[in-house]
Specification:
244 residues, 9 helices
């Protein structure tokens, strides 16, 4: 209680010091617009804040992040390590691999849309239309035709060209395709580690060591096989080659 009391005293003293120093304050208010430009600017700010709030979802669902992070999670589960590597490492590695895969696409967006817009050579709508083209091409290349057709049939859409495919149908089809591919890769990852678990369990039972958990013996064996096979490099190479 005494420490808590002195902490409140310290905070009150700091607050009084800042108040006496005359530091500026920041306030956000709502007032009456004086011109049509004020209304337009306010709407643009609201739209920008909305886009920023949706940025994490767009980052996950329209890039290679979904497939990569799921494959990494499958590897950790197949190895049998509960929290090694940690989630921060897995997500960080998946994010930087996503930057590597999406680099050419984002470079096209920067050259064709962002830089001309900043130089005031094109309008905002033109910049959005130009930025959508490389991202759309990337998603179309990595989307199964069956998945895309399913969403188009539900919406009863019949686009004549790839450019006519609506984003509302393309994004969920792309996400499902990424999930399907990640689970296929996860199946192949699990097979060698499952064989090691079966061999270890059979060996322990044949020696009468049924009280010893097989995971204690199989974990070092799986780690050894994974290291000798240069597992991380092989896995990253396989993931990146899938986006060529």
């Amino acid at each position: 209680m005494k420490k808590l009391f002195w902490m409140f005293v310290f905070l009150a003293a700091v607050e009084c010091t800042f108040a006496q120093a005359g530091l500026p304050k920041i306030s956000i208010g709502v007032g009456e617009a004086k011109s049509q430009g004020d209304v337009s600017t306010s709407l643009q700010i609201m739209a920008l804040l909305t886009v920023l709030s949706l940025a994490p979802a767009l980052m996950i669902l329209t890039t290679a992040f979904t497939r990569i992070v799921i494959i990494m999670s499958f590897v950790r589960t197949a190895l049998g390590t509960q929290s090694i590597p940690p989630n921060q490492v897995m997500v960080g590695l998946s994010m930087f691999l996503t930057f590597f895969v999406m680099g050419p696409t984002w470079q096209k967006v920067n050259v064709n849309a962002v830089q001309p817009y900043f130089e005031k050579k094109i309008s905002q709508q033109q910049a959005i239309d130009r930025a959508t083209i490389p991202v759309r091409d990337f998603m179309l290349k990595n989307t199964y035709e069956k998945d895309l057709k399913m969403f188009l049939d539900i919406r009863k859409e019949k686009p004549k060209t790839k450019a006519d495919v609506s984003v509302t149908a393309l994004i969920p089809a792309f996400v499902i395709s990424e999930l399907k591919t990640a689970f296929i890769v996860g199946f192949y990852i699990f097979i060698p580690f499952l064989i090691i678990d079966l061999v270890v369990a059979s060996g322990l039972m044949s020696m009468g060591m049924m009280m010893l958990p097989p995971s204690i013996v199989s974990l070092p064996a799986k780690l050894l096989v994974f290291v000798l096979a240069d597992g991380w490099s092989t896995l990253v190479t396989a993931i990146l080659s899938g986006y060529r």
